[in-house]
Amino acid sequence: MTALRFTATYRIRSDAASIEARAQAIAVEQSVEMPVSAIVEAEILRDIVGQVESIEPRGDNIFDVRIGLATATTGHEAGQFLNMVFGNTSLHPDVVLLDLAIPADLAAAFGGPRHGIDGLRRRAGVFGRALTCSALKPQGVPPARLAQLARQFARGGIDFVKDDHGLADQPYSPFAERIAAIAGSVGRTCYVPSLSGDLDAMRRQIDNACAHGINTVILAPMIAGWATMQTLVRQYPEVAFVAHPTMGGAARIAPELLIGKLFRLLGADAVIFPNHGGRFGYTPETCRRLADQARAPWGGIRPSIPVPAGGMTLDRVPEMLDFYGPDVMLLIGGSLLAARERLTEETAAFTRAVARHEYR
Amino acid sequence: MTALRFTATYRIRSDAASIEARAQAIAVEQSVEMPVSAIVEAEILRDIVGQVESIEPRGDNIFDVRIGLATATTGHEAGQFLNMVFGNTSLHPDVVLLDLAIPADLAAAFGGPRHGIDGLRRRAGVFGRALTCSALKPQGVPPARLAQLARQFARGGIDFVKDDHGLADQPYSPFAERIAAIAGSVGRTCYVPSLSGDLDAMRRQIDNACAHGINTVILAPMIAGWATMQTLVRQYPEVAFVAHPTMGGAARIAPELLIGKLFRLLGADAVIFPNHGGRFGYTPETCRRLADQARAPWGGIRPSIPVPAGGMTLDRVPEMLDFYGPDVMLLIGGSLLAARERLTEETAAFTRAVARHEYR
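Predict the joint structure of the above. Result:
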């Protein structure tokens, strides 16, 4: 049994008199989940029980607690990793999982993006500027209509066009018919279909997509299950994966950790997140930290490209490019679709704005 | 395309002036996720876009909003169902998914517990009193030690003994070795091993368990992924499933809905939840509603047995039985294990207390 540990940082609301007991309780909850006094084996106490490493007051009854958890408890399996990192503690309303420091062996077991920013740039044939992306919507329309929209996006010069995350395998737009219709309509644009269902279904969908020359897909780790994503990333090393944040409900896991760091660790080459000032409530600081975590040097782990989204509009392109820099993929969906019959022209205006941007 | 809808109730913090717009925004977010003005197809507006059905003020800037969502968008698939019910909206810090009204066709597509309370009672050979359960801990000890604990629990007359949810497929206690050791040690007690990993791994684990005569397993729907659970429940109709609440982080989904109703819908025959007054913060009212939802008549959907847990002790048995009634499974883990060499006797005291209880 290895004695190696990884470190989880929890942000806890507590009065000062209780924080040491709270911290110790979390260390036990996230490891052996039983009274420590009932453990007879010395090696379990030494190697498996979580260890409180530090408690730092942050003011206003907030404390950041670092706990060392045994790597061995994860079995190097993604679902169990999530279970050991935050499983039962997620049920406490006053605890947020703030950060994770992951040793090299554990990081290597997950492996991170197989393609990363460079690989996505090669797919698009685009270097030195931000990548562009839009989304096929609304769900409910038949494949031919989605293919028509995809053609207009492609003619406008977009780099990537993804399925709306609501597009699954519904009778009104079955996956197989949808990708057959769209794959032939996008020219040099990369079409990114959305995976759904269980592991078997997702494998069939990827196989089907690959048969149509598609090499990038999107899935939602919090719905698919982390083990499902880990398996797909391993099984399809030639495929690039985009992570969608749906069900990320990031109140309990800091979004910069969940989306910026953990989805990257799981192998997402691109991570979509709600940009500040859009339909969701993330602050600019959260978005910057999230993008930083997605791109920061991290041993042998490739960077993921951050994809700010969620109600973005053409007029925000310059500001977003200045905020995130060129290693970003801008995703504008509904706002382009609102142009209706002028979709190609609006898309062309988007891609021009990105191509011609002069960074401040 | 069917025009049938199911109804989701969201509890939203908002000022009164904004609530209609907030409600409409959620109806759009959880359906087409694009500007409604950009939708050209009349049938999408009629059949697919979410519809705000009612807005009820609850005081203190809290509103309960009922939204009708198209059943067709779920494709009758569990992961996509979660995505459409709460996916993107989970990212809003001021919205809680409070309840779901599910029409018969959708309920039938999931099917609920295949065995339910009666089926679990038949497994244990116990009728007319509460069921008892304990847990094998701590993780880190080898299979032989876990088997020894299981034997002591069984000699104490416990009905079910489950793996700690931290027990996965780690090198110190591989699944196959663990169940081989434990299955032969429990006599008439039902041993409930914990599933982990991806769908393939879980299928191998169930096949392995069945080969040892095990007919009940435990898994965590929020980690495994709902699609994984839906597939397993369908593929193994002879196996009973216990749902563990880990990663349920129920701040954003009301626990009585998530654990009491939705885990039941997915096919959990037993649902574990943190009892009031234990290590977690659920109130007695939440626990009662959760247990009520798990057992209430629901068309053709079998009841799930509620399993209150999380720091329970022997002295609380009478109070818990009076609170929940006889259709309950009491789960006491660490507190029994704290008896160490007196584990069998302490377990026997637990099972006696349940058997002899006179309801008030």
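Chain A has a mean pLDDT of 91.
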